[in-house]
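Entry 14. Structure prediction run on the chain below.
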Amino acid sequence: MPGATRTAIGITGNQGPIDGRRFENLPGVVEVIRVTKPYKLITLDLRPDKTVVRIGDATIGGSELAIIAGPCAIENRQQAVAVAESVQRS
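Output returned:
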């Protein structure tokens, strides 16, 4: 899971506790953090930095407000163009 200043590796699907000492001495490992919450992929314990995504010149995430508009699904090209034109006018 890439972050702003480091990459975190999460282990999912394990059936019980994993001994973190198995990873502490591997090359590139700075620290081992045990996350026991079932939502480890989104918890701030594992990734304290806010997620920032860059798309072209736009930045989504961090401290800036981003508004994303559009339907949840596109049925055809005409609908996609109509939505894009409406969003652009807004």
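The mean pLDDT is 81.
Filed with the rest of this week's runs.
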